[in-house]
Amino acid sequence: MQNYMSHTNKIKNIIFLFLIFSCYNIKNAILRTINQYNTRGKIVRVTIPEGKDIKETAELIGKALPINKKTFIQIARHNNMEGYLMPETYFFNIYMNERQIIDTMYKEFTNKITHSMYDRAKKLHLTFHEIVTLASIIEKEVSKPYERRTVAAVFYNRLGQKIKLQSCATVLYAIGQKKLRLTNKDTCINSPYNTYKYFGLPPGPICNPSLDSIKAALYPTNSKLLFFVSTGHGTHLFARNFRDHKKNKQLIKRDLNDKKKNLLRQ
To answer: To 10 degrees, what angle do helices 128-141 and 148-160 make?
Structure first.
């Protein structure tokens, strides 16, 4: 009788443990499902367009994620991340902090830059930081993708002939404003980013350029162009000398005046 009772108790214990184990597995399965569902809800899609600087990037991310924008800017600037926060569509977890987001964007940059790109920079006798700096200027100056390599050629030719780059985009970065036209006062600002005042490239990038602009900086077109001026329609007129550059500016001015007259007649 005792053996029977003992055997029965063992069976009961086994059944009890089996039920506990089953419930535990069911509970874990349920929790995993809930966590997977919650994780999907915690992921936020954020698109960073090319040409945004650190401050603008912080603003865009701050609209989608609960970050401290000032902290983001401080960390990014302290680590010299201007130019290295790769424009891309990201999927961030809402619990990521500022440093983790910056690290993710920088990792995207390093993933896209190949060894051959570094080798090409060496052939051009430039550091890769200088390539990114030039790419950032190209990014801000160009609206039409097909003009990237041509604008790059203009800058290389000016650097080679020791002519100031005179990029409006660098001055706008220096003054921290967005303006349609620069004043004489703007172009005289004492900043190492003012390429109207100082020769050569500025000390660092003025925005975070696209991969296409980096490639344009690495592979400019083969030309003798030295000047370009905006048409006001997203494109530019290019010239090999100052005389032709002046003609281009006069053509654009005449075109603008004609449009104003046509508007007044309507």
So the answer is: 120
By the 8 A CB rule, do 86 and 112 touch? yes
User: Is 4 among the domain residues?
Assistant: no
Residues 178 and 216 in one domain: yes
For the packed helices 54-64 and 69-78, what is the interaxial angle rounded to 10 degrees?
140
Domain housing 150: 115-221
- DSSP designation for 84: T
Are residues 167 and 80 part of one domain? no
**The pair of three-digit structure tokens given for residue 115, joined into one six-digit string:** 């060894």
Residues 105 and 119 in one domain: no
Which has the minimum average pLDDT: 16-20, 74-78, 173-177?
16-20
CA distance 102 to 98: 6
pTM equals: 0.82
